[in-house]
Design brief:
single chain; alpha+beta; 3-stranded mixed β-sheet; 4 helices
């Protein structure tokens, strides 16, 4: 009885370690990620998001053509479809260089700006690919 009370008090001060689910795929490096709602509400897709997703897939299937694209590469086609469906005015790519993604964005970004921000050493640098 006393030991149970002690464990209960200790758990209030020191929570149990978080148990992460096993990775669905093997990878040399991986990190666990979780998304939480600020308002503790269950997330849901809006009608606009669903319509945008369908339009992006349709445009990707009809209008996106990349030479030398090998499978898997569907994400690049979908990226092109999103560029065509959303017609963004500004696209900012943050992080490491992905030459194929940059090529798709540049090819299907109609009249918008493409800004790339990457990390150089311990500082963040800005490089404009085209305006």
């Amino acid at each position: 009885m006393i030991m149970q009370s002690v464990k209960s008090v200790v758990r209030k001060i020191i929570p149990r370690p978080i148990q992460t689910p096993p990775s669905p795929v093997e990878a040399e490096e991986s990190a666990y990620s979780a998304i939480y709602s600020v308002f503790d509400e269950q997330g849901h897709a809006t009608a606009r998001l669903v319509e945008l997703g369908i339009e992006a897939v349709e445009r990707a299937m009809k209008n996106v053509h990349m030479r030398g694209l090998v499978r898997p590469g569907e994400e690049l086609c979908l990226l092109g479809g999103l560029m065509l469906a959303m017609r963004p005015k500004v696209v900012v790519e943050v992080g490491e260089t992905n030459a194929r993604a940059a090529e798709v964005i540049e090819k299907y970004l109609e009249g918008g700006r493409y800004q790339k921000v990457d990390r150089v050493g311990m500082r963040w640098g800005r490089r404009s690919l085209f305006w």
